[in-house]
């Protein structure tokens, strides 16, 4: 079945460090891929998305490239800030584009 | 402002006392869904609805009910809550595959 596997956390980085959170997927058909972010005490917010192979989604300095050959959608940021501390979820949707499958989330803490 | 509104934000209740968590969206989305979030387990889908009067079970539907009588509303009903339903609940809606819009969450404690 369709599923998403993402890097276990928690991840702790110093401010201005480089961030990578790995995400791989299994899907029938042609999925769209998403990263969501959950700040403390809040709901999930869409961070970025990519709808077809080789697309790059980007937002707020974060980037992820849809790699069909490796079935991956790794999240990267060149220089993290304290305000990036949150839980990050990788997700995919297939077919209708409405049913989503989420990874288990990766908690990121950025220390000054 | 486009949003999904859940109420209440926090709820403490006793075992067996029926409760309803409301969810409403103002984006005319056809697809709505309920998730629960538990430490180490991520988000698990409880129920979803493709449209009015069309609902189906997600991965963890036991102990929950839903209804979709109107397009904008998708309440989650716990007929007889138990302590293992203590969790953080999210309602979400989606239209045309552009991604979910989530509510702010309902933290439920069943004692």
Short description, anyone?
By secondary structure, chain A is mostly beta strands. Chain A has strands at residues 3-6, 11-14, 19-21, 23-26, 32-38, 44-50, 56-59, 62-65, 75-77, 86-93, 100-102, 106-111. In chain B, strands 2, 4, 5, 6, 9, 10 and 11 form a seven-stranded mixed β-sheet that branches. Chain B has a four-stranded antiparallel β-sheet with strand order 1-3-8-7, with no helix packed on it.
Throw out a few tags for this protein.
heterodimer, A: 112 residues, 4-stranded antiparallel beta sheet, 12 strands, 0% helix, B: mainly beta, globular
Uncertain segments of chain A are none
Question: Based on helices, strands and strand pairing, what is the structural class of chain B?
Answer: mainly beta
Distance between the termini of chain A: 41 Å
- N-to-C CA distance of chain B: 36 Å
Strands of chain B, total number: 11
Largest interface: A-B, 21 and 26 residues
Q: Could you tell me the mean pLDDT of chain B?
A: 93
**Strand percentage of chain B:** over 45%
The number of helical runs of chain B is 0
**Overall spatial form of chain B:** globular
Mean pLDDT of chain A: 92
Please describe the biggest sheet of chain A, giving its number of strands, its sense, and whether it closes into a barrel: 6 strands, mixed
Main sheet characteristics of chain B: 7 strands, mixed
How would you spell out the order of helices and strands of chain A?
EEEEEEEEEEEE
Oligomer: heterodimer
